[in-house]
TrEMBL record:
PANTHER family: N-ACETYLGLUCOSAMINYL-PHOSPHATIDYLINOSITOL DE-N-ACETYLASE, N-ACETYLGLUCOSAMINYL-PHOSPHATIDYLINOSITOL DE-N-ACETYLASE-RELATED. InterPro entries: GlcNAc_PI_deacetylase-related, LmbE-like_dom_sf. One of its GO terms (molecular function) is hydrolase activity, acting on carbon-nitrogen (but not peptide) bonds, in linear amides. Gene3D superfamilies: LmbE-like. It comes from the Bacteria. It comes from Nostoc punctiforme (strain ATCC 29133 / PCC 73102). It holds the Pfam family PIG-L. This is LmbE family protein.
Amino acid sequence: MNINSDSKNFGQRTVLTIYAHADDEVLPAAGTLSLMSKAGWNIRCLILTDGSLSSSPIKGTRHQEADAAGKIIGATYEFYALEEYNFSTQAVIKVTEEAIRRWQPDLIITHAPQPEKYGHRDHEVCAIAVSNVATRKNITLWYSAPPVFLRGFEPNFFVDITSVIEEKVAAIGCYESEVNKAFMQLDAILVLSRFWARELGQKDGYFEAFEISRQCVDASFFYAIANNHQVIKPS
């Protein structure tokens, strides 16, 4: 993925990420969001839960950690207080529709759908609900790679984040309350980023992987490509 600063000439675009928990957004996509921010995109991160069941007993910790991560990747956050392990698809649909009305995103990024037997119940409910709304609203939708379970995830879009790998690591590091999780460790972050590079046959560099569920483009997309001012250029 190449993001050109000249993309600002085409008007600011907005990417809306919708994830169940704070840290779900940086693990698979911090590098991509950072690149988009540098290119002039408006980065909005919507978190469905408030972290009341997080590793830290101090209320508001996850909010503070997310704000710190946002300063690194150029994102602003909004938290909801849906009950972890117990929110419904209907609740997420309502939240998603409200967010779309307010922010009019050009792109939505969320969890990749995965059966509960392999993944996280909250991630699966979020993925189903967001997919429903994006489909009905005809909004471009990307699924990001799960941090651990890869079953059923079939990436078809890869982003070279080599230039911002340190920012990705720093953003993930902001979530100090979750540092004991295996996939939050530095070696796990780098190994997975290198894994996606190898999937592309790249000997060097770090990548993030996405599955494009829906891609909607208009005439300006082709004009941008023709003039080498593309906002997004698949590898």
